[in-house]
Amino acid sequence: MNLFSLKFRFLVVCVLAFLFSTFESSSAGFPSRRSILQANPDLQKVLDHCVNDSLKYEAALYLIDNLPYHYSSVGDALEPYRLQLDLFSQWKMSRREIVDSVRTKYGKWNISTLKNISDVYIDPNILIDNIDWAFKVWREQPWGKNISFEDFCEYVLPYRVGNEELKPWRRDIYNRFKYIIDSLKDCEGIDDPGFVASAVLDSVAKLPYHFTDFFSADLHVGPDIAYWRSGSCLDLTDAMVYIFRALGIPCSIDMMLMRGDGNAPHYWNVTFDSSGNQKYFSLLYRRHRLQSVAYYPDIKGKVYRQMFALNKEMVDSMAVLQDSVHPQFRYPCFYDVSYMYLGDKALQFSLGDSAFYHKISPGDVVYVCQSRGLQWVPTAWTVYDGSSAEVNNIEGDVVYRLATFNNQKLRFLTDPFLLESGNGNIRFFRAKNEFVNVELFYKFSLKIESYLPRMVGGVFEGSCTPDFSEVDTLAVIDSIPTRLCTKLRVDSDKKYRYLRYFGPRKGYCNISEITFLGPNDVKYSGTVIGKPGVKNKKYTYVNAFDGDPYTSFDYPEPSGGWVGLDLGEPKSVEAVVFSPRNHDNFIRKGDEYVLFYESGGNWNFAGMKKASSDSLTFKVPKGALLFLSDRTRGVQERIFEYRDGKQLFW
Predict the structure, then answer these.
(1) What is the total count of domains within the chain?
(2) Long-range Cβ contacts of 474-482 (<8 Å, 24+ apart)
(3) Is residue 232 part of a domain?
(4) Structural domain harbouring 360
């Protein structure tokens, strides 16, 4: 989710607030059923259609009661946005070519021009068609008997997934994927929705699907995504919801409002079996199978489950006027399922007045915020009881800070702090008056640099025979590289004509750049040699000696690849400098960087430098939380601390 998405969500909340002000409220303060039917008298057609079926009638009331909390985003900008995902699903054009093609067809467009139309004014025929088809499949399929009416209403019945433009979809998607459930009719376990869900996931995962966050926005594109199966994690989870629900299988979306160690929210799917066991899955995950939510691996912070109904319990618990609640939680159609995911890893913490910047009043809502770059996003909340703010069922090894929401702005209440896993201790990041030097090598956690581990065990060798039948080991890579350019000393007095890097087992000989150095660090040149074979012409072995650390060699087989130089004559080697295959998150020579440190609720300027090598040195207050931004290029940047001479990203 980008900055626009947050602003877009805020505008939606404002529209809902205005809409609610025109409705008669129930005794609990929510729009009454009577006011909804008065706003759209045609909705009576839905009730009349269902009047002779008590369950259908109850389901219709459930949908109508929750119409005020849902909307469609519509407008001219919707079609170009949808076209991008359609073209990407065809896998014939690059992302940049898609953007250019769409711009040629539609000119300039911006999804901020979309308008939000409340579902209160929905076409009743859409609800009637949705209810009829949802009940038809639920009642016809063997596993339907093991899905309660309550679960059916929440996880099968809803006519929409997000803020997509509405149109009937159940019949078409059911007919498109019906072949999967038809193939299971004689299988033992067909009455278990978990068994059917596993089979459907297995079948859909064998169809083409394509991930990219290049076109990402907080916008749902509608049921066509079930056919395209392309886009962000949000798009791919939407696709599975449409498919599962069309087939009568309970399905929803679980989410982090912000990743525990990243700058974006994340979405995946959840279903359950006949015993009620909660199972997560996603087309994005390497293992396409249902797994217990207790084993979900990512750092989460908090996890919520999307639902169709408004979480009135959450609204009531805040006990404040809705316009004083942060937009993230103002009309929550989700509920907290963190306890399901965290189990015995769930932590509780409490902070009192001594940690607060300023006084607050009993009953004030306090938000737990996580970092999104230089911004802070609320991901949980609690109520101040007059002495402390207590938070339960939250994950450790995440940096948080507390805030209140006043005059439509967050007002920070505490310094950022790390909630340590295991013991639940809190460690604040507070800038001290003492300044220290920091040497920086990258701007984002190396966890996303998936190629780096492929270098461990790689060997630099020297030989006097062109087939390397007799070799000496010059240097070994014994740990994951932590900078763009690593220098290894060679302890050998011998001379070699042929030099090479031999990739480790399962390393695909991934390497971006190699420089062999002689006496006085003289750079050697020669004829590039290597083991033939390549999966993609962009990744040939000559890239290892082209002087560019952002091109690389990718051998087509996991093992056996190598690349090197024929020096023409034997020469002594004193050192090797290498660069790993990478995603360009190391310090890049020639780029301009700005370093910030957090203090007193503000990000403060620590310095600006143009990189002259693969590292940068700054002077910063000791103990401060830091953020390094590349002003020349790139988007992957994350908060970190400097501790014991190392960058630790959170």
Answers:
(1) 4
(2) 474/499, 474/573, 474/576, 475/576, 477/504, 477/578, 480/446, 480/452, 480/453, 480/455, 480/456, 481/452, 481/455, 481/578, 481/580, 482/441, 482/442, 482/446
(3) no
(4) 312-428
- Would you state the pLDDT for residue 11? 47
The length of the chain in residues reads: 650
Report the C-alpha gap between 77 and 88 in whole angstroms: 18
What distance in Å separates the CA atoms of residue 630 and residue 592, rounded to the nearest whole number? Answer: 6
Q: Give yes or no: residues 67 and 156 share one domain.
A: yes
Strands (E), 407-448: 409-412, 417-419, 426-428, 435-440
Does residue 483 form part of some domain? Answer: yes
Residues 328, 205, single domain; the answer is no
Q: How far apart are CA 80 and CA 104, in angstroms?
A: 10
Q: Is residue 260 part of a domain?
A: no
pLDDT for 17 equals 53
Dihedral sign, Cα of residue 586, residue 587, residue 592, residue 595: positive
Of 192, 219, 246, the position where a domain reaches its end is 219
Q: Quick check: 37 and 43 in contact, CB under 8 A?
A: yes
**Which DSSP category does 140 fall into?**
H
Closest CA to 451 of 395, 410, 507, 403: 507
End-to-end CA distance of the chain: 19
Q: Look at residue 635 in the predicted model and tell me its pLDDT.
A: 85
Asked if residue 297 is part of any domain, the answer here is no
Domain match, 179 and 152 both? yes
Based on the fold, state whether residues 458 and 500 are members of the same structural domain: yes
Are 609 and 596 contacting, i.e. CB atoms less than 8 angstroms apart? Answer: no
Q: What is the mean pLDDT of each run of 10 residues along the chain (650 residues)?
A: 45 50 60 97 98 98 98 96 96 94 95 95 98 98 97 98 97 98 94 97 96 89 97 97 98 96 95 96 90 90 97 92 89 96 95 96 97 97 96 97 95 97 95 97 94 97 97 97 97 96 97 97 97 85 97 96 98 98 96 97 97 98 98 93 96
| Residue where a domain terminates, one of 552, 579, 606 | 579
The answer on 557 and 490 residing in a single domain is: yes
* 276 CB neighbour count, 10 Å cutoff: 10
Write down the residue that tokens 């679960």 correspond to: 151
**CB within 8 A of 38, min separation 6: which ones?**
24
The amino acid at residue 625 is: L
Torsion of CA 117, 123, 128, 133, to 10 degrees: -60
Q: Are residues 130 and 26 in the same domain?
A: yes
CA 364 to chain centre: 31
Task: Read off the amino acid at residue 311.
Answer: N
